[in-house]
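for the writeup, i need someone to sanity check this before i put it in the appendix. the sequnce is what the collaborator sent (i think, or maybe the updated version? ugh). structure was predicted straight from it, no edits. if anything looks off just tell me and ill rerun, i have time this weekend
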Amino acid sequence: MTIANPVTVGCKLPNGLVLRSGEHKVVLSGANSSRVIGGYGLTSVPSDLWEDWAKRHADTPFIKKRIVFAQATPAKAEGQAKEQEGVRTGLEPLDPDNEKNGISKL
């Protein structure tokens, strides 16, 4: 993997995600990481690893629902993360004050 042209990958999964391509892997920061923008953890990833992984997983909900995305620069990734703050993963914590989720106070 070449790190000469890294991309910045945003991941909104709570615990991140492991990207693997051959012998190489990168652990993405997720929504529970120390620095989060718009609910996304941001990680620098070699562009060829990202391209291979994204191509193999193009039909997954991670890509289709914009839960995981890549941008050429950190600034562009931060901008996209802010724009997509409302994207839902289905793994958000439940709101105990919202009874329509089947939760009621005792």
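Strands lie at 6-11, 17-21, 24-28, 36-37, 40-46, 68-71. The chain has a mean pLDDT of 91.
thx in advance!!
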